[in-house]
Amino acid sequence: MRDTVPHRRGIRRGIRRGLRRTFATGAAGLVVAGLSWGAPAQAATPGREAAAQEAPLLDSGSAAGRKFRSTGRLVGGDGTTCTATVIHSSARPDPAQKALILSNGHCVSDVMKTNEVVADRAAPEGWTFTPAYFHDNTAEQRTFSVDRVVYATMKGIDVSVLRISATYGDLAKLGVTPRTPAAHRPAQGTRLQAAHAPADGVEEGKRFLRLSECAATGTGVALHEYTWLWRDFVRTDCRGISGGSSGGAVTTVDGTELVGMLNTVSTPGYFGCGLGRPCEGGASGLVVPPDDTVYVTPVDAVASCLDGAGLQLDRPGCRLDRGEQVEVTSSGQQTQNTTPQGPARWDAHVTPLDGRRHAYVAFKTGPFGATDCTRREGYSRPQDLPAKGLNYSELLPGRDNLYVLCAVGGPDATAQGAAWARSFAHPSYAYARVDNTPPTVAPEVNVQRFDDEPDGTVYWVRPVYAPFEITSYRIKYGPKAATHCADPDGYHYFLGIPASLKASEGPWTYCAIGYDNADNPTPPKTVDIP
Fold first, then answer.
1. For residue range 241-264, what is the model confidence (pLDDT) as tens digits?
2. How far apart are CA 200 and CA 202, in angstroms?
3. Structure pTM?
């Protein structure tokens, strides 16, 4: 999208366009998952410019700048901008070998599904990487094409490894040497540095590498955003992070160990859990983090798959998912525990990726964040999985929470042996949210008065959305004497078109009931119009 609405890219394009239409009358801009950035907006999202400026620009000749020369600007499809870092298993790679860069999975594709894994594919034309992306060395910067997506996923982890056209020798001539991802995760309280190139809310000529200093405030975090379920993430108090920072290198405070990548931030001005508002999972329910909470993807799983030849998914001990498990599709529903059709149920469909390897399937469910799908305990006995697949429609729990469905396929009914062990290591997921709680914010109605119309004064009236607590409305309006908002008759869904009410025919009453994604209603809002 190339328009004046401020936004950050990173969600499915179709959903993004639909939400933009839906929220256009009520939101300052569109929030999206992750920290990638699309076409530059003509206006900055309120509050984001000051936040971005909190991170000072890195000078290329500074001590910190010299440590972060391997980090730079990644430009992907449709002009998506992220941050990426040159990596290798050692500090001295073969100079003739093409270089690998590390970034987030959503920087490769903002339409990636819950369980999707991409491996060894040609990169689309036009993708580029510019290392040593400092504000004071633009004359010497070199931009290289991205020629291959070596690996990308948002299943459990948000990561991508890309190959660029330059060799490690080419980069060495520019003073760019690779980072080696750490084989461990940062512990809580670890002091960190993050090098990243934010674009959201940053002036056009200042979108270069910046340095944030912060600390890990939580580890082992289960994080849910949009259709993605991530585990073992790191919560931080990093500041100055905005769109374009995705994939930014996160190191120990001395800049020596690459321990993670910037992933997503809890965007101010929005409510609850949704796009750009990740929530933490646990047994007691989803936790909405404070505004500007920043999350980091650890890189130890990537480190486990690197050797001198590059990223090797079949390397002994490699912990990245190869994408070999059963296919699971689900609506990702948000529902009350009782629906017009009866008690709420799972709506997942499972199909084998390989009929021989996945002749059977086993299931486990529980609260997201408190349920470890990689542990065998709690799984059902394996059942036949036909080639056409089967539906999983068991009852959902009644208590408010986000629930995960774990599904693993195997060759037989034993749930034992090496093949099953590999299945349990990388299960597939579906999720559903049970929500019986009404929105926590009250409906809001916007009234605009126009005095110079041919028919005299006219009021344009519309309800205002509050994502993600109020995402739809039912409304009615009419003469004040005959319109009572407490009366349920006469309401209809608001379709985005403001009511045009002539003052000469008033007074009027406008009624609005807000609904969340589980169709929990607010009390009616009454607005009297002269």
1. 999 999 999 999 999 999 999 999
2. 5
3. 0.90
